[in-house]
């Protein structure tokens, strides 16, 4: 067996450490509970189980230490943090064996026979166990994992509120949150897989063991983009299998930042031409619904009555979110969080949608994605006469249920991503004169049908292909 094979086998075993490490925690905590019950209750018979719990805790602790050492050979961990975790684990394990030997009577020490330090030993052991776990959590999730949301901790200054979408600096407002959600757990100050840290822009610039992860102006030639585009079962794919992958929108945003934003920390959306899908993602993420308007669109806005705040309040009480797009315009976005409507409450929501009727001429943008939508709800949506952008992704809509939407004469953008629509939807879309773009990937609409449709239509069909 070669050294490489030995190394792979060692790492294979080491990856069982996160599973095994919970066993000593459970056994030793259980031993403490039994000891407390023996000391402070009448359940003296439980004391007989303490030596067994200590023995299992000590043995599983020893196995966890060995597997942890094997896992550490993969590298990428902060050495000081790793040493702290390792040695606290060893001391805790040795103390567990010592406590078991005393409790079982195998080890007889005169002074301990008189003092009976079982409870004190177990208390110290649990404290050491907590410290060991703290170091382990820091190694896995970052140094500030435990205290990040603590009330006494000095909070990081929030980013300034944006007045316009085009003022958004791409890295801090859009790119960094993606890295924090999908990458930083494995690439931080304490845990640098592949020698790469991604918790700050400065760390990104340093790169990893293989050098820079992106080439400004060349997204396809950047290692970061190559890794996130690999098949999900590939050894080098990032995030690795088992972690939450980047969405198509997040990948598109990163490509845009590298290609057009030159992977710069200070580039704003207003300084470069932004693809529509990236603009829509940025608008949704940052709370700007009408992306085109926020980005300097010259479209003439419809005239609307001032908002009736009593109506708005009655709508928001039911779970809708209503936001005026431009102060004083009376034009609004209406959104609904994912998962609000399901088969059990859909009748109630059909009534709730009727509450939107007083705003039907004022709704310019709407997002009801991620919900079950009935035919009756689609009829209500079709009454929004000035609707420009409509998001119905991840919903239960079908070719038949969306037919009422063809009456929306002002609709410019429609998102039916990951729904049950088929090729039969395309003729209806062709009848919608003002419709400019439809997002249709991960549906049953075929590539051939899209190509045939596009020969006779100027409508931009975004299929993800």
UniProtKB/TrEMBL annotation:
Residues 16-140 form the DUF2231 domain. It comes from the Bacteria. This is Uncharacterized membrane protein. Residues 183-242 form the Cytochrome C Planctomycete-type domain. It holds the Pfam family DUF2231. One of its GO terms (molecular function) is heme binding. It comes from Maribacter dokdonensis. Keywords: Membrane, Transmembrane, Transmembrane helix. The lineage of its organism: Bacteria, Pseudomonadati, Bacteroidota, Flavobacteriia, Flavobacteriales. Coiled coil: none annotated. The chain crosses the membrane at residues 20-37, 49-71, 86-107, 119-137. The keyword Membrane applies.
């Amino acid at each position: 067996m070669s050294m490489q094979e030995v190394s792979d086998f060692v790492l294979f075993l080491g990856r069982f450490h996160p599973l095994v490490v919970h066993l000593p925690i459970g056994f030793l905590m259980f031993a403490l509970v039994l000891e407390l019950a023996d000391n402070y209750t009448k359940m003296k018979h439980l004391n007989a189980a303490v030596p067994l719990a200590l023995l299992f805790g000590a043995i599983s602790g020893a196995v966890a230490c060995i597997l942890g050492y094997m896992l550490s050979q993969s590298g990428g961990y902060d050495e000081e943090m790793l040493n702290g975790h390792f040695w606290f684990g060893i001391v805790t394990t040795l103390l567990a064996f010592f406590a078991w030997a005393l409790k079982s009577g195998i080890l007889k020490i005169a002074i301990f026979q008189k003092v009976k330090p079982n409870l004190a030993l177990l208390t110290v052991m649990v404290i050491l166990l907590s410290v060991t776990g703290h170091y382990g959590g820091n190694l896995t999730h970052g140094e500030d994992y435990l205290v990040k949301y603590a009330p006494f901790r000095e909070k990081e200054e929030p980013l300034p509120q944006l007045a316009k979408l085009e003022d958004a600096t791409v890295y801090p407002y859009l790119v960094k949150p993606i890295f924090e959600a999908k990458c930083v757990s494995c690439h931080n100050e304490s845990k640098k897989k592949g020698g790469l840290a991604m918790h700050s822009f400065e760390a990104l610039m340093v790169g990893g063991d293989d050098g820079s992860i992106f080439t400004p102006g060349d997204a396809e030639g950047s290692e970061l983009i190559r890794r996130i585009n690999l098949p999900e079962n590939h050894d080098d794919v990032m995030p690795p299998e088992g972690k939450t992958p980047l969405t198509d929108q997040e990948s598109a945003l990163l490509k845009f930042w590298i290609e057009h934003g030159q992977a710069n920390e200070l580039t704003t959306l207003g300084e470069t031409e932004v693809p529509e899908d990236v603009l829509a993602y940025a608008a949704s993420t940052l709370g700007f619904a009408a992306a085109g308007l926020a980005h300097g669109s010259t479209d003439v806005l419809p005239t609307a009555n001032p908002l009736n705040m009593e109506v708005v309040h009655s709508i928001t009480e039911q779970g809708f979110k209503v936001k005026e797009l431009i102060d004083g315009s009376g034009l609004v976005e209406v959104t609904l969080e994912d998962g609000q409507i399901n088969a059990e409450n859909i009748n109630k929501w059909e009534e709730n949608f009727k509450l939107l009727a007083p705003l039907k001429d004022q709704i310019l943008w709407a997002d009801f994605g991620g919900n079950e939508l009935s035919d009756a709800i689609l009829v209500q949506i079709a009454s929004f006469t000035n609707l420009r952008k409509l998001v119905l992704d991840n919903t239960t809509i079908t070719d038949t249920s969306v037919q009422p939407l063809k009456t929306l004469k002002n609709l410019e953008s429609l998102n039916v991503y990951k729904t049950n629509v088929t090729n039969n939807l395309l003729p209806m879309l062709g009848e919608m004169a003002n419709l400019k773009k439809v997002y249709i990937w991960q549906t049953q609409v075929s590539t051939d049908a899209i190509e045939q449709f596009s020969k006779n239509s100027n409508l931009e069909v975004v299929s993800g292909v």
